[in-house]
Structures are given as C-alpha cells and as structure tokens.
Amino acid sequence: MLKALMNFLSLCWKPFGVDIVGGSSGGDNDGGGGRDGRDGLLWYRDLGKCATGEFSMAVVQANQVLEDQSQIECGPFGTFVGVYDGHGGPEAARFVCDHLFRHLQAKSAETDGVVTAETIKRAFRATEDGFLDVVSELWSTKPQIATVGSCCLVGVISQHTLFVANLGDSRAVLGRKNARTGGVDAVQLTSEHNANEEAVRRELRDLHPDDPQIVMLKHGVWRVKGIIQVSRSIGDVYMKHAQYNREPINAKFRLSEPIHMPILTAIPSIVSHHLQPNDSFLIFASDGLWEHMSNETAVDIVHSHPHAGSAKRLVKAALHEAARKREMRFSDLQKIDKKVRRHFHDDISVIVLFFNHDLIRRGAAEHHSVGYFWRFTYKGNRTAVYCSLI
C-alpha cells in the first residue's frame, strides 16, 4: 500500500489546483518531469505520466478567446483523454471538459466500473442534455448560447481495450510499429463528421430526404443548411430544437423553414480496439492540426524524436506549415496577436499518448490498491493541474 501511495504521489508534479501560465516550470527530465509552461500563445506540457504510460500535451491559441479545451483523467478504470474543439464561443467546449468525464464515471459505476460503448454514449447523451439545460436557463439573457457548440474527441483505455468516440472533425491517429520496415504506420481511427465528406452528405440526405437544401455548397465548402460544416456536436441547439431557432439569435443562424427533427446529432461514432504490443502511441488532435499535416507526417514526427515535447513539436510543425502557405516566416507568424492569428490558423490542441504495455498489463491490480483522481486541463487562457486521492 505504501509503495502504491508513493507511486501515486510521484505523478503529482504540482500541488492541487496550481496554474502554470507563463515561463517554464520544470527541468528537462524526460523521465516524467519534463517541462511545462508557455511560449507566446502556445501552452504545453512536455511529458507527464498516466495510468497507461506517458503523455505530451500542447495547445496554441488563434481566436480572441481560446475555444479548444483538452484533458487527461486517470483512475482505477484506466485513462481518459478528451479534446474538445469549440465553435461560436468557448462555452460548450468548457462545459464538456467539466462534465463529460464525470458523466462517464457515473454511467460506468452503474455497470460495476466497466466501460463499454454504451456507457460512453450515455455519458455523451447526459452531457448534451446538461448543456441544453444551460441554454434553456440563459435563453432570455444570453440567447446566442444556442449557437455555440463543440466537437468532441474522446479516448478511453480500460484494461486492454481502447475506445475512441468522436463527434465532429477532430481526429485520432494510432502509431503502430511495422516489424517488416522497422518504421511506424499511421492508422486513422476516426472518420470526420464534416459535410465536405461525401459519406456525411449522403448520410444527411438519407436522414432528410425531403430537404433538398440539407447540404449546400457555398464558396467551395459544403455546409449543413449552408451554415455549419460539422454534422455532429455537443450544443448547436439552434440546429436541433425549433424553439431555439428564432429571434433573438443572429439572423445568419435562423432557418427559413421550421425544424421538425434535429438536423445535427450528439450521438458519437465509437470504435473499439484491443491494444496490441506493436501499438506504440496515439495522437489526439483538433482539426487545426490536420489542416496543415497528414497522418503520416504527424506519426513520423512523433516516432523520430524523444517522447518529451512531442505535442509541442507537432503544433510548431503545423505553425511552420501555416506560415509557409502564406509565404511568411515562422518568426513573423509568432508576432501576430490572437484574433488576427485566426486568419492564418485555427486553435490547435494536441495530446500524444505513449503506451507502456507492461504498465497496462499490471494496471488493474495496482490501480485497485490505491485509487486516484488526476487531471491536467487547459481552461481558457490558463493551464491547471489537479491531483488528489479518491
């Protein structure tokens, strides 16, 4: 018991609730210390430990208010990873970051702590219902909350099984060792719920056969009802409930015909994967990364460098590419302030999770000997670390 407690305490590199905005706040010890801090509009954690191995985490801001949120939670069940890409404002992404994992804990407790695809779906449903309650409460004072939404990318590793749940166009890519080539292959685990994908347009047309304008091509981009690109999200209740698609929300969100059934959905697509010894790492990222980088390039960058700083390295590679596309120097891009920066790239959130298969095999017995709740999240313009026993 004492050994397990000491192992737990070694994970808490910061006291409970400490913000780490500004400056580097650690050494370069890749063994679990790493560095965390801020570089302009970039916040990062170079390396940390979790129940299934190590992780690296980074986010760069482009909008006036950071709309991305991300988190890692570890406990007796294993590891939970979440990347939430907000749009229309930060409120939905922040709400998901605060509530989705808690709902998963509650739903899993009803099945003796066993995580399944159904418990994940129920957690998403509860989170959607909770945000709808917020919209209802604020409708008279802050009606534009009805037009705020968030894509959600979640990974849950429980025992030897990886579940990946997705709403929207964030992406999870697995780095898998190739014994024949000695390299690492990129395996995309998610599909984007974006109207630019033919499969998504076909799905929407099948669901709404009487609506010839369910998807519209505007300025070379396919959009649902000519307004939004993603077809699944938490929030965006103006596209789901008729009572919120009316004045006083902005006219650009109001439809000319009544909503008889939800146009967008909060039902995630879920894949499960039994972890194999050649599964090396996972990259979870909002679409801001994939706009500038292929799966293969991202996996090669992670594979070709030390674990420490992997997420920050991916973000900087994307920023270099964004600068190149605009025929400018990276150093000049770094000088551009938030909000204006959005014309060059989106908010970008990245979490890289490295698998320690020995730790995963031992995990169940060890984690039952001492439980813990552990959290590392980006909240608005601050980075917070939480760590406590449960």
Describe the structure.
The structure is a single chain. The chain has 390 residues and is α+β, with helices and mostly antiparallel strands. The protein has one domain: Phosphatase 2c, domain 1. The chain contains nine helices and 18 strands. The strands form three sheets. Strands 1, 5, 6, 7, 8, 13, 14, 17 and 18 form a nine-stranded antiparallel beta sheet that branches. A seven-stranded antiparallel beta sheet has the order 2-3-4-16-15-9-10. A two-stranded antiparallel sheet has the order 11-12. Helix 2 crosses helix 3. The radius of gyration is 21 Å and the shape is globular. The N terminus and C terminus are likely disordered. It catalyses: O-phospho-L-threonyl-[protein] + H2O = L-threonyl-[protein] + phosphate; O-phospho-L-seryl-[protein] + H2O = L-seryl-[protein] + phosphate. Keywords: Hydrolase, Magnesium, Manganese, Metal-binding, Protein phosphatase, Signal. Its EC number is 3.1.3.16. Belongs to the PP2C family. InterPro entries: PP2C (IPR015655), PP2C_BS (IPR000222), PPM-type-like_dom_sf (IPR036457), PPM-type_phosphatase-like_dom (IPR001932).
